[in-house]
Amino acid sequence: MASVAFSPDGKTLATGSDDGTVRLWDVATGKTRTTLHGPYGRVESVVFSPDGKTLATSSDFSPVRLWDLHTGKIRTTLHERVGLGSVSRISGRGWGVGVRLVPWVVGI
Known about the structure:
four-stranded antiparallel β-sheet; 11 strands
């Protein structure tokens, strides 16, 4: 397991793994709710949006991906390669992804 994040309501735990998957866990039961499979390697960062409906993920030198947690599908891919563990936060005002090591913030 390379990264973890709790949803804003504390009911879901997201884990990013070395095998390229992101698992969403039910905190109350300890069981996997769903597994997200993406076209990348080790998941270095996972971050929930403030409303808990979107998950941002990043991998070693791969684009940042924004997942729709209702459908389990990638909503948006930010194609710039931003480096290791690049997703650091999601803004509470509107929607923004803070990207470490890059001097800009992408607004969605």
